[in-house]
Design goal:
The chain is an alpha+beta fold. The chain has two domains: 76 residues, Beta-grasp domain (Ubiquitin-like (UB roll)); 69 residues, Orthogonal Bundle (DNA polymerase, domain 1), CATH 1.10.150. Helix content is 34%, strand content 16%. It has five helices and five strands; from the N terminus they run E-E-H-E-E-E-H-H-H-H. The chain has a five-stranded mixed beta sheet with strand order 2-1-5-3-4, sandwiched between helices. Helix 2 packs across helix 5 and helix 3 packs parallel to helix 5. The N and C termini lie far apart (53 Å).
């Protein structure tokens, strides 16, 4: 299949590349751009570990074609920190012991950022429901939920 030229902004930097029409955004990020923080799990949109933010909304990058991301703004786990300064949610994940094997962590973080940043008044039940979109095989949900709740409180200034 012929590759198509695409141009997208990834973590604030314009990126240009070539992708076959059937190449997933997850594969494009990992293979063409070298951004391996976006993990690939089930490749069916079920586990959520490949979650990135596209134009302000969390999406499963395994279900989105790279060509669909043309002219869009993508934020990956690599774009969460500010240089050597961790994002507040990353710090809270560490403090709340929400990190176990780490495989689901990029998807958890990107999902949580999307949930809280788009709804700073999010309630604990809404957090629990929203975070259920990403599977953790280590059953580390308690620390994850505490970290996301603490992040929501920080955003609200409580």
């Amino acid at each position: 299949m012929d590759e198509q030229s695409i141009s997208l902004t990834v973590n604030g930097t314009e990126q240009n590349g070539e992708a076959e029409p059937r190449m997933s955004l997850a594969d494009f990020l990992r293979e063409r751009l070298g951004l391996t923080g976006t993990h690939i799990g089930c490749e069916h949109g079920v586990c959520g570990v490949c979650t990135v933010i596209c134009d302000g909304m969390a999406v499963r990058s395994c279900l989105m074609f790279a060509v669909q991301a043309d002219k869009k703004e993508i934020r990956t786990i690599e774009g969460l920190a500010d240089g050597d300064t961790m994002h507040p949610l990353q710090t809270l994940f560490s403090e709340q012991r929400a990190l176990q094997c780490g495989f689901c962590t990029p998807g958890m973080l990107m999902t949580a950022v999307d949930l809280v940043d788009n709804n700073p008044s999010i309630t604990p039940p809404e957090i629990k429901a929203g975070m259920s979109a990403v599977l953790c095989r280590c059953t580390g949900y308690e620390g994850i939920l505490k970290a996301v709740e603490a992040y929501a409180k920080q955003i609200k200034g409580v």
